[in-house]
Amino acid sequence: MGSGPGRWQFDWRLLVFAGAFLPVLISLGIWQLNRAAEKAALLAAWQGQTASVDWEEVFEGPWQAGQPVTLTGWYGEQTWLLDNRTRNGRAGYEVLTLFMPVSGPPVVINRGWLPAPATRDRLPEVQTPESILTLSGWLAGYPQPLVLGGQEPGREGWPRRVQALSGEQVGEQVINPAPMVVHLADSRQPGAYRADRSPDVMGPQTHYGYAVQWFALALVLTILTLVASYKKQRKTGADNDNDNG
């Protein structure tokens, strides 16, 4: 008993599986391409940005991460210590303090990194200037990882250790806070600690790589579906006798 020419024999279960996942994979690839275009524009804006805007001007249009800004006002007493932030392998915190501008909404200032004490039951001492001052920095979103954490249960006073900080948490302390935070431009700014971070802008190449992976998975799924659907028709004994005759 031999094999005849191949023929297509689609399995409806296989078609349902491929039909469900193929659009998802293609959509993810397209989404990553769009994200790559956004990041390319954002990176170009950050690299080409030379002049800071005043705090009031930020709200004249859509705000953009990485935009340099200057603002004048004073620090408040509310300080959050963003946990699990390491520098050069050493544990520490990012110091986030509420700032009250002379004009415009209150905003959280990321003052930079501070090393943690030797034990978890102690918090670092945070020194905050009390006079009116002018700051330079750049805009960024609130630090909100996938798993959100609030203040430590039962802890009163300031500073407070947090795993993340949202606009809602800040809104518990002040009315209508700004929808973004300001990272100090450098460690020479008033009230700064180790403020040497650049804007977290993932390069467009990373998103292009993700897009290639999603499109490759879509191609593999399509090929496997076609290969699994192409069957070689087997010849029966009667077919062989007819061929021999």
Q: Would you write up a description of this structure?
A:
- This protein is an alpha/beta fold.
- It has helices at 12-48, 167-171, 204-229, 237-244; strands spanning 3-8, 53-54, 68-87, 90-101, 107-115, 133-140, 160-162, 181-184, 230-234.
- A five-stranded mixed β-barrel has the order 3-4-5-8-6.
- Helix 1 packs antiparallel against helix 3 (204-229).
- The chain starts with a strand and ends with a helix.
- The model is unreliable at 146-151 (pLDDT under 50).
Query: What is the 3D shape?
Result: elongated
Mean pLDDT: 82
The helix tally amounts to 4
Strand count: 9
What does the radius of gyration come to?
29 Å
Order of helices and strands: EHEEEEEEHEHEH
Regions with little confidence, pLDDT below 50 for 5+ residues? 146-151
- Main-sheet strand order equals 3-4-5-8-6
* Largest β sheet strand count, sense and barrel closure: 5 strands, mixed, barrel
The amount of beta strand, in percent, is 25-35%
What structural class do helix, strand and pairing data support? Answer: alpha/beta
Taking the alpha carbons of the first and last residues, their distance comes to: 15 Å
- What is the helix fraction of residues, given as a range? 25-40%
